[in-house]
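ugh ok so i messed up the first submission bc i forgot one of the chains. this is the corrected input, ALL of the components this time, i swear. 560 residues overall. if the numbers dont match what u have on ur side tell me asap before i send this to the collaborators (the ones from the other lab, u know who)
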Amino acid sequence: MDPTSLTITQLREAYLREELTPADAITSIAESIEAKDGEIGGYLSHDLELAHADAAKADLDAPLGGVPIAIKDLISVSGQPCSCASQMLAGTYTAPYDATVIRKLREAGAIPFGRTNMDEFAMGSSNENSGIKPCRNPHDLERIPGGSSGGSAAVVAANTAIAALGTDTGGSIRQPASLCGVVGLKPTYGRVSRYGLVAFASSLDQCGPMTKTVADSALLLNALAGPCGRDSTYLDVEPVDFTEFLGQDIAGKKIGLPKEYFAEGLDPGVKEKVESAIDELASLGAEVVEISLPNTEHAIATYYVIATAEASANLARFDGVRYGHRSEQSDLISHYEQSRAEGFGDEVQRRIILGTYVLSSGYYDAYYLRAQKVRTLIRRDFEEAFSKVDLIASPTSPTTAFKLGEKTDDPLAMYLADIYTISANLAGICGISVPCGTHEGLPVGLQLLGPAMDEAALLQVAHAYEQSR
Amino acid sequence: MDIKKVAHLARLALTEEESARYQTQIEKILGYVEQLQQIDVDGIEPTAHAAPVFDTYREDELHEDTLSTEAVLSNAPATAHGQIKMPKVID
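and heres the new structure output, hopefully the right one now
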């Protein structure tokens, strides 16, 4: 049995039947990384010795007992690097503590194994902004895996991981999941603690699972959700066993199709796959209706004002003083300016400059405050929609994976590819991307969006669809 | 946009080439963002956070797993006497 191709559920069963041990799984994954990851570039590093030490003391009765999970390189794991794929932190920074999500994974018995590639500080949609090395789509090595959690999606798709954690600020879990043909879940804002994650845009960031199946997504979310005490935005809600909803009938679920998400710009091949997935949901008993999210056209502009503003503030901490790259200069201002210029890559610098500009005196009201007001309109669109339907269905991405280099010279063209994912972050709701076939050999993802705190419905419907295929 | 002024506010030293390139790219993005000016937002409250949570309190007590000084200093580029070393702030 090759453990690398297994899902979490299958791996757990193999452990309990004593066909495999966690050490076998770690060894096989390390071998598959050795064999395949050279050309994919999904991992930035992995600590085999540490993983074997964790495997040796794994509690196989725990819900994720002995299951290795690949971790996006902006999530702190004590004693391991956390570079955010940036020269600012690469080679010099070792996380001194575990993020809450890592503590929770460990409590559930899982083993954090491997640091996955990403766009630098999670800024990008293609993984081409990695400051370390490019990452490629396992379905076609000339193409991008998506981003920013491109490495996490690629390693799950390539069977060089069982499952992974990603983060999603404007689609960074769902879009790469779609382009690589895996399941990616962005939980509701406030569902999962961000303590120990390197912040990009704090009013938008969420951490979630990237898996081979919807059932694995539910299992991982069970472990990740829950109180933290160290993230003030964590919403204190009753715990839910997300696996309970898997297999439940979806007859009568009302699913809305936003007409703005099926308009100009959507690749006809992607549209066809998504529409046949929606037909499948209808044949399972879901009631499909057209809805409108009228402020969709303003979502990208709103996002790139708010996200860059927040990023410019969050990334001020990288000043060459307490950690990260330092340029030795005799005066303080040059110390700051050179350390940051040498440490940050182009896209990060562009976003910091844009964010600083929209927050600067004389421009704040026209850009930042106005964007926050438009954000209210976008949020209301979803409130209105969810008063009529249980879930929303759409494509995750307007196209399949594009080629490396195709959009690198035009940051705006890259931003426009986030059109279907970005609004969920602005509205703080939850969303999932689930594979719905391929177009010209490349994976297509069906996105389901749900109201805040209704991941259960997302997982239930996504699972019903997945099982029907 | 005066890119040199903004870059200085952001504490980023740019080369002439970077200044010119970023200026063109950012102005294109700002041109796109201009659409926000056309939307009627009169009387609309701004959304700062998606979820209506503003303060989550915990007991004011020491966490047992608070990092040691050594752990805090372990990533600093330069240290001396249990503190972080850096260029002089005040002459």
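quick check: Chain A touches chain B through 78 residues (CB under 8 Å). that seems consistent at least. Chain A is about 40% helix and 15% strand.
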